[in-house]
Amino acid sequence: MARDMPSIFADGFKAEPWWWQDAPLSDGPVEALPQEAEIVVVGSGYAGTCCALRLAEGGRDVLVLDADPIGFNASSRSGGQVTGGVNVGKSLAHKPVSDARRAALLSDASKALRFFEDVIARHGIDCDYHAKGRLVGFWTPAHAESWTKRIDELNAIAGSQARLVGREEAREALGSDFYWGGVAIERAGHIQPARYHAGLVRAARGSGAAFRGRTRVLSVAPAGGGFRVETERGPVAARQVVMATNAYTGAHAYGLAPDLRRGIVPVSTQMIATEEMPADLAARILPSDRGVSESRRVIAHYRKSPDGCRLLFGGRATFFPLSVPRIATLLHRAMVRRFPEMAGVRIANAWGGKVAMTMDRLPHIGGGGGRYFVAGCQGSGITMMSYLGDSLAAKILSGDDRAPVNAYDTGLPPRHPLYDGTSWFMPAIGSWYQIQDRMERRPTT
Ligand SMILES: Cc1cc2nc3c(=O)[nH]c(=O)nc-3n(C[C@H](O)[C@H](O)[C@H](O)COP(=O)(O)OP(=O)(O)OC[C@H]3O[C@@H](n4cnc5c(N)ncnc54)[C@H](O)[C@@H]3O)c2cc1C
Known about the structure:
CATH class: Alpha Beta
Order of helices and strands: EEHEEHHEHEHEEHEEEEHEHEEEHEEEHH
Oligomer: single chain
Bound molecules: flavin-adenine dinucleotide
C-alpha cells in the first residue's frame, strides 16, 4: 500500500473478536483439577456448555474441560446470526434424501431456534437478541428459482416465515443495490454471541457444572469400568465422556478422537467489525437491522452491531493461510463492493475461527458405551450446536444408547478412506467455488 494512502485500520485496531470488549472471556486463575467427575465434557463451546447445563440440571456431576480459555473458539467468534432450519435446508437442497427424512431434519432444526429462545428466557440471558429476520440476497437472478422451490418446505416444516422479495424491497432493507432481490426469513435474528455463551456458562455453573479452561485433553482410555481422561494438568477419572470439540477435533491432540476427526473437515472463516459509522451513514446502511446472507457458494454474511453503529462483516475471504490484516483487507474490499459508501469506514477488529463441515453436510450426535460426541456445525451452529448439546445430554440421561433422540442422532459423520482430518484440499476446492461464483455473476454486472 502506498505510504500516503489512508489506512483502513482504525487507531487501536485489535486482532481479536469485537464481542470480547463487551463480554470478556473468563481467564482467571486456573483452579485445581478435580481427580474425578461422573461425566467429563471435552470442549466448552455452545455444544459442550449446553450439554453440561442439562446434565447438571439432571443431577449429574459434570466437568467441562477446554484446551483454551472457556469459550475462546468458535462460540465467542461468530457473526451472531440465528435461524432455525434455513442452513439445513441449504444442505439438503441437492441431496437424494427421502421426504420423511428431510422433514425430520428440518423439523428438528426449527426446534433449535425454539431451544435457543427458551434457554435465554429460562436463564435470563441478555444477549442482545434482535429478532429482526434475515435477508438472503440473490447473487444472480437465476438463484430465485431454486429458492422458490425451497420456500414452501421451509414454511410448512420449519415455520420459517420465508417469502421472496424483489430487488426494490431488498434495496430498501439493505441500503444497497447489490443483490437481485432475495428471500426474507422472519424467524431469524442476531445476537451478541459471546454474551450468549457467557450466559450459558453462568447457567451451567449455577446448576453445578464445573469448568476448567487451559486444560488440554490428551487422551481418553478405558479404565476401571469407566475412563481415564489424561490432561496436560493430570488425569481425571470419569464414568462417561462427551467430545464436543467440533472443528477443533484433533487440533489440540491429534490422536484424541480419530474416528470423529476423520469425519470432520475444519474450515477457517473470518470477520471484521468496523469503527462506529457517522450517524447519517449508520441510518442508511442496513436500516432493516436484518442479518444478511447470500445465495452464492462462498457467502458473505453481515449484520449491524447491537447498538446499530457498526457493521460486522464476515465470510471466507480466502482459503489460504494469510495474515489477519491481509484477510481483513479482503473482507473490507468485499464490504465496500456491497456498500460503496463505506469506503472510508475503517476496521476496528478482525478475527477468525474454525467451523466444521462433514461429508454429508449435516451435524451429528451419537455414541454409546460411555463415549459420546456432538460435531459438524456446517458453519452455522449458534442454535444448532446448543440444541444438539442439549439433545445429547438428554440421550445420556435417558440411559438408552440405542434410541435416537432426534434426526441428527445417527452416529459418526461419514468418512472417506483417504481423508485423515487435515483439510489440505480446502484452498483448491474453496478457490474453485469462488471462481464459479464470479463466473456466474459476470454476465449480469
Ligand atoms: C468467524 C465465524 C463466524 C460464524 N458466524 C456464525 C453465525 O453468524 N451464525 C451461526 O449460527 N454460526 C456461526 N458460526 C459457527 C458457530 O460459531 C459454531 O458453529 C459454534 O460456535 C460451534 O460450537 P461448538 O461448541 O460445537 O464448537 P466450539 O465453540 O469451537 O468449541 C469446541 C471447543 O473444543 C475445544 N477442544 C478441542 N480439542 C480439545 C482438547 N483436546 N482438549 C480440550 N479442549 C478441546 C476447543 O478448544 C474449543 O473451544 C461462525 C463461526 C465463526 C468461526
